[in-house]
Each structure stands twice: as C-alpha cells, then as structure tokens.
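Try this one yourself first.
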C-alpha cells in the first residue's frame, strides 16, 4: 500500500517536470527575443512599429486563442493538445530562424503564438488535475519558478547568441528543446479531459474576440504612423468596440461558450484575473522598452543587457516557489497585494532613469521588480485555479493566461503609443534622439507604475475570497491515504 502511494506521489512530480519542459520553451522565447530586438531591427531593417509587431503578433495570437486552446484541451485531451501545441511551436520556431524579412518573421511569430496558446493552458490544467489542492500552490510555485528560470537564462542566452553567433539561433534553440518535451509528454503525462458534458469549439466567439483584439492592437500601434484621427485608426477602434461587444453578447447567449462568464461570479477568480490583466499591461511594454533603453540609450551590448535582468529573474526563481507554498497556508491576498505594490515602486524607479543612469542605478529597480513579481505571480495563479472546479481547469487556466497575454499585447501597444508621443514632443522641442526616447520611456513607466498600483488595490479587495476547492471524493481519498 505504501509502495503504491509512494509511486503515485512520485509520478505527480515527473508529470510536473514534463509539462515544465514545454513551459520552459515558451518563456525562454519571450526573453531571448527581447534582448535581440535591436539586432533584429538592424538586420532586417525593421521600423519600430514592425518591431512591436514581432512581439505583439506572438502575444496577441497567444492571448486571443488561449481560451480556444483550453477548451480544446478539455474536449480532446490535455496531453494531446499540449503535444500538438509543442509541434506547432517547434516548427514555427524553425520558420522564425529562417526568416529573411519582417513579413516572414512576423508571420512565423503569429504561428508560434498559436502553438503557445495550445500548450500553455494545458500545462496548468494538467497540474491542477494531477495535484490535490493542499499541494497545488507548491506545484504552481515550482511551475512559476521554471518560468523564471527560462526568463533568467533567456536574456543571457539571447545576448551570447546574438553577439557571438547569429540572431537566428535564438529561435533555432527551441527545436531540440521541443523534441525533448514531446518525448517527455508521452512518457510521463496521463491523458485527462472534461467529461462533465458535451462540448464543442465556439467559432463565433473565437472570431469576434480575435478580430476585436487585433483591431485594438493595430489602432494603438499604428496610430502614430497614420495619425490618431485618421479614418484607418478611427475605423480600427470602431471595429474593436463592435467586435468585443459582440463577443460578450455571444458568450452570454451561447449554449457552450468559449468564455464561461459564470466563472467571474466568483470574486476571487475575478480578482485574480484582474490582477493578471494589469500585470500584462504594466510589464510587457516595460520589458520591451527597457531592452531598447539599455542598448540604444545606455549603449549596452546584448550580453550586458541580458545580464542586467539577472537580479530580477534570479529573485523570481528563488522566491516564487516559496510564495506559492506560503500562499497555501496564509492565503494569496497579502502576497499579491504587497507584491504588486513593490512592482509599482520598481516601475516608479525606472521612470526616474535618464541617459546617464549607471548599472548601480538600475539595480534597485531590478531587485524590487523581481521580488514583487515573485510575491505576486504564483499566489495569483493559485488563487484563480483554486476558484474553479478541477474539470474546468483547462478553461480556467486559459482565461487566466489569456488575461496576461492580452494585457501584454495591449500593454506593448499602449506603452509604444506613449513612448512615441513622448519622442515626438521632445524632438519638436529640440532635444536629441536619445533624450527624446528617455522622455517617452519615463512617461510610459510612470503609467505602468500606476497600473501596477491598481493591481495591488484589486488584490487587497478581492483575493481574500479565494479558497481552495477540496472535492468530497478527494478529501475522503486523502483521509484513507493518511490513515494508511
């Protein structure tokens, strides 16, 4: 009896290791690309708006299709959809590395987003159905730590590859990792799906949400090129409003909606998703422009820029698992609210930087950012997943991750609009290009700090309602196990 229990317990952690391989690849891709942005811009002669689309095209597709990915995982099997996503992501990474123009690179990045949208909700839902609530926060903390490890390795790996090999290899590196992840998935992950009722893909919901998000991102990114009052931009905003309003109406009346709005009746789930949306809004654009700031204003090499992010990411590696474990015991509210407040302070420090800031000037902001994100992310995720039934884990995790990715794509667009506006205003006043960029960067990070502070307020007022759902069957099983 004890041997069987030990084997089952051991297998849970091998399952976590297997899904972490795929997660590692997704997160590695984020930070590797950020450090290589200036080199990509020079190599392929990209405009700033095209550079934004390299990042936003991935994040937007990732976010827009994640709900569908979660639904497909619940419907057809979480392991199956995870592996399909891995294959798509791996092949599209190869396409990114072979790209010779902006159009091909952006297109391949969009396809990468499709693969990531299938993979990511499956990783979290597999963890949710594998681990009981009493261990779920710890498992999610490790899951977040793996994300952080990829984020930590990414900048340095991206810097070394970009500076000493070629930018193409920041994408080629995903190919062997993807192959290992596919083998590990079949070896260690058991298939699971939602058998509670008949399900089907929500095509109208997918179309309206994707169209609305694309139109909104397009308007924000291209507004400084065509003018905020141009017919193209105003038309894009109109399409976004109509499409997103249609999406909400469709989801309210669909028999089997892509987005189950009833999930948001749980205050803890709503609060966790609100925090995650604001994390994306505040942080994605900042990461994008901090990388440009370090290399184009401070003159850092790709390796130096990558190394500058190490304090941030190493703190997440060290602290995120502990924050997840402690949130199991004390609840998520104190960790998320204080973490978001610390992130806001970090962003405020970034907003005070200029063209003469030293590495020692960067360090406090990087340390605070890492500590704040470590405190906030795993408990936010655990709070959201504790608020949904295990059979709805795929859709629940998809909603949460969609919030982060949609917030991220919009955050890049919004921060880009603020930076571009600041640059235009500063150049018109006769400042140098570097000083003009710093002016826009300062405005953008100030707005990001306010957004993060709003996240702290939402966490403090909602997440006390998040509680673990301990199913009756699982509770009785646990009692038998402990008795044995």
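Now uncover the answer:
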């Amino acid at each position: 009896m004890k041997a069987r229990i030990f084997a089952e317990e051991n297998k849970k952690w091998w399952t976590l290791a297997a899904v972490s391989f795929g997660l590692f690849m997704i997160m590695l891709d984020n930070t590797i690309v950020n450090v290589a942005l200036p080199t990509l811009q020079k190599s392929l002669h990209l405009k700033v708006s095209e550079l934004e689309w390299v990042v936003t095209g991935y994040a937007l597709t990732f976010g827009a299709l994640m709900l569908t990915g979660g639904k497909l995982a619940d419907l057809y099997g979480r392991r199956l959809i995870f592996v399909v996503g891995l294959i798509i992501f791996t092949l599209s990474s190869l396409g990114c590395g072979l790209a010779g123009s902006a159009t091909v690179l952006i297109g391949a990045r969009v396809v990468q987003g499709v693969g990531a949208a299938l993979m990511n909700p499956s990783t979290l839902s597999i963890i949710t159905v594998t681990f009981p609530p009493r261990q779920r926060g710890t498992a999610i903390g490790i899951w977040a730590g793996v994300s952080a490890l990829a984020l930590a390795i990414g900048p340095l790996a991206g810097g070394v590859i970009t500076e000493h090999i070629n930018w193409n290899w920041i994408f080629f590196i995903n190919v062997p990792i993807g192959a290992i992840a596919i083998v590990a998935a079949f070896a260690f992950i058991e298939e699971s799906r939602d058998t509670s009722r008949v399900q089907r893909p929500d095509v109208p919901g997918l179309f309206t949400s994707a169209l609305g998000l694309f139109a909104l991102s397009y308007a924000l990114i291209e507004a400084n090129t065509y003018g905020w009052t141009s017919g193209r931009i105003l038309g894009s905003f109109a399409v976004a409003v109509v499409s997103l309003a249609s999406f909400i109406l469709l989801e309210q009346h669909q028999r089997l909606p892509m987005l189950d709005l009833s999930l948001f009746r749980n205050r803890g789930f709503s609060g966790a998703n609100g925090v995650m949306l604001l994390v994306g809004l505040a942080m994605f654009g900042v990461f994008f422009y901090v990388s440009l700031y370090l290399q184009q204003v401070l003159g850092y090499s790709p390796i130096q820029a990558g190394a500058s992010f190490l304090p941030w990411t190493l703190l997440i590696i060290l602290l995120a698992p502990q924050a997840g474990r402690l949130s199991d015991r004390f609840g998520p509210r104190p960790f998320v609210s204080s973490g978001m407040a610390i992130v806001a302070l970090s962003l405020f420090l970034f907003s005070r930087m200029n063209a003469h800031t030293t590495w020692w000037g960067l360090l406090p902001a990087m340390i605070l950012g890492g500590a704040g994100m470590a405190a906030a992310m795993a408990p936010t995720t655990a709070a959201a997943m504790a608020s949904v039934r295990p059979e709805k884990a795929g859709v629940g995790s998809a909603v949460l991750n969609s919030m982060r990715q949609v917030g991220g794509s919009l955050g890049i667009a919004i921060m880009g609009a603020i930076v571009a506006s600041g640059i235009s205003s500063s150049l018109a006043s006769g400042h140098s290009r570097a000083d003009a960029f710093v002016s826009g960067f300062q405005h953008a990070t100030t707005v990001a700090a306010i957004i993060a502070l709003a996240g702290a307020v939402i966490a403090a007022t909602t997440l006390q309602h998040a509680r673990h759902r301990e199913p009756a069957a699982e509770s009785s099983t646990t009692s038998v196990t402990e008795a044995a």
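Discussion: The chain has two domains: 2-201+258-483, 202-257. The chain has a mean pLDDT of 80.
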